[in-house]
Amino acid sequence: MRRTMLATAESFPIAGTFTISRGAKTTAEVVTCTIGGSGLSGRGECVPYARYGESVAGVLAAIEDMRGAVEDGMGREELARIMPAGAARNAIDCALWDLEAKLSGVPTWQVINAAPPQELVTAYTLSLGEPEAMQRQAAQEAGRPLLKVKVGTADDAARIRAVRAGAPESAIILDANEGWTPENLAHHLALCAEARIALVEQPLPAGNDSALRDLARPVPICADESVHRTQDVKSLIDRYDAINIKLDKAGGLTEALALREAAKEHGLKIMVGCMVGTSLGMAPAVLLAQGADFVDLDGPLLLARDREPGLRYEGSTVYPPDAALWG
User: Fold this and answer.
1) Residue 12: beta bridge partners?
2) CA 275, CA 301: separation in Å to the nearest integer?
3) Counting CB atoms within 10 angstroms of each CB, which of 61, 131, 201, 298 has the fewest?
4) Active site residue: 102, 148, 246, 249, which one?
5) The pTM of the whole model exceeds 0.70
6) The 23-37 sheet, strands edge to edge
7) Nearest C-alpha neighbor of 192 from the set 172, 166, 177
């Protein structure tokens, strides 16, 4: 079967501004890969991330470099061997999964999970801001069962207390985006314990997180930027209690599934997260997140406009994708 492959860049407006410790943005810039064969086509979406040296132009070029091999029939396993993990490989890998499902008539969930997928409760993300503004954000979303709050400044004490005051009953994940230091880590973690924070994500910079090894962790710590591939997991178990699996970091669903199994084998909790993208990018992650301890797949909820058809969200509940969307 001869295939075709095409990659396109798209921009989706964010509702308001999305702010983390590294900066703010008002649009989600995504790249969509479409692979066709036998009159059918599969799609995959990725989000190039500057933190990892990625750009839209660079991802488009990387996908184009693989076009000949993919059109000649290269499979997902070979793709993983010859292409580095990252956004470009994610788009191709997920497009291949989608095409395989359409050609075989067997849904992706049936290949990767033992049971039909169920709806999930996702976190809803609050942007970094001044404590008073963050308390208002938290109060507005206090009806949601799980909030993810962006922090990562030299002193987040007021922010931690403010979001807990704004949403006294919600479970809260704090995402420091590598913004804390070994010097302020213990102080912040003590405040997190006081505020009943459920999980702290990547408090220290990747590659400079050895302080976690010798420090009592009163709140579970989750690796994000510190974990990309399955090979990373074993080296993290003395510093982290959980890992955040993102398709764009792992380079697709194929590697993400292996990461999920490695985390289970080493007794780590599993969080399935996302970049800010559309329902097409979230769809395979919803299947990956079945049985996860924490789910953070709210990307489409942060957009002013999503794809049609998109995932079905009811409040913080996200439902498995229909075949018309993906898989």
Assistant:
1) 28
2) 12
3) 61
4) 246
5) yes
6) 4-20, 23-37, 40-46
7) 172
CATH no. for 4-105: 3.30.390.10
Strand 221-223 to strand 242-245: parallel, antiparallel, or no bridges (unpaired)? parallel
224 known member of a binding site: yes
Which of 102, 148, 150, 249 is an active site residue? 150
DSSP 8-state code for residue 233: S
The reply to whether 102 belongs to the active site is: no
DSSP E strand boundaries for 129-278: 146-150, 171-175, 199-201, 221-223, 242-245, 269-272
Task: Name the residue among 195, 201, 197 with its Cα closest to residue 178.
Answer: 201
Tens of pLDDT along 127-167? 999 999 999 999 999 999 999 999 999 889 999 999 999 99
293 is in an annotated binding site: no
Question: Is 72 labelled as part of a ligand binding site?
Answer: no
CA distance 133 to 138: 9
- Is 264 considered catalytic here? no
Q: Parse the chain into domains and list their residue ranges.
A: 4-105, 112-318
* CATH 3.40.50.720, domain 112-318, yes or no: no
Per-residue pLDDT reduced to its tens digit, 60-79: 999 999 999 999 999 999 99
Q: What is the pLDDT of residue 142?
A: 97
Statement: residue 83 has pLDDT above 80:
yes
What is the Cα–Cα distance from 6 to 32, expressed in whole angstroms?
A: 8
Does this chain's domain 4-105 share its CATH topology with 112-318?
Answer: no
pLDDT for the residue 56: 98
Nearest to 322 by CA among 314, 312, 313: 312
- By C-alpha distance, which of 29, 90, 113, 107 is closest to 321? 107
